[in-house]
Amino acid sequence: MINKVEICGVNTSKLPVLKNDEMRVLFKEFQSGDQEARDKLIQGNLRLVLSVIQRFSNRGEFVDDLFQVGCIGLIKAIDNFDLSQNVRFSTYAVPMIIGEIRRYLRDNNPVRVSRSLRDIAYKALQVRERLVSDHSSEPTVVQIAKELELPREEVVFALDAIQDPVSLFEPIYNDGGDPILVMDQISDDKNTDDLWLEEISIKEAMKKLNEREKHIVSLRFFAGKTQMEVADEIGISQAQVSRLEKAALKQLKKYI
Fold this sequence. Notes:
Elements: E1 6-7, E2 10-11, H1 20-30, H2 35-44, H3 46-53, H4 63-80, H5 89-107, H6 115-135, H7 141-148, H8 152-161, E3 171-173, E4 180-181, H9 193-206, H10 211-222, H11 227-234, H12 238-255
Antiparallel strand pairs: 1-2, 3-4
């Protein structure tokens, strides 16, 4: 078949398209308890999911995975759509599909970033978009931080944390010969005297912590676990982990 493209076993060339009046009838039937009408609404709006996932085609994710996640967003939109509001279904559904896909990409990022950092970063991006819209110019980090009432450094750190990782073997220049890779532009500063002394001072400072604080710091900063994972492992709340972690870091700064 010439135009046949299958995603998750679905032949996209044969997907139905529903008209607005058909959609309203089906929504009324579904909201009266007809599950078959719900299935028809899902099938009739899969093209909407296809149009949305094209925006994320450059993220290196499998199309099948994005399609499935987008379908979850579509189903949520169908289940929560209010017919009494004078809004087209596509206008309501597209942001929900996009939001579901963005959550999937965020949660499956190969670099683990704490939820609090991600929240700050996405709030900063929303503020940036609003300021660009209001002033037609790119805002500074200081302006964004002021809007969020947060320190500039915290905003910078959060925005850096959600950046996509770059492979050390990614070429950055090629003149026809051997390419220059990212790793070729990175200096080796692992074995300096300063780092050796710093490692000793950290080990000495760790001895000043009690066993629970030492365990939390080890899990958080040496094992790379999130506060929620640490809380589950040692049997306390995430808030307690956060409080103990801050106290431990304060102690470490005192002795380093």
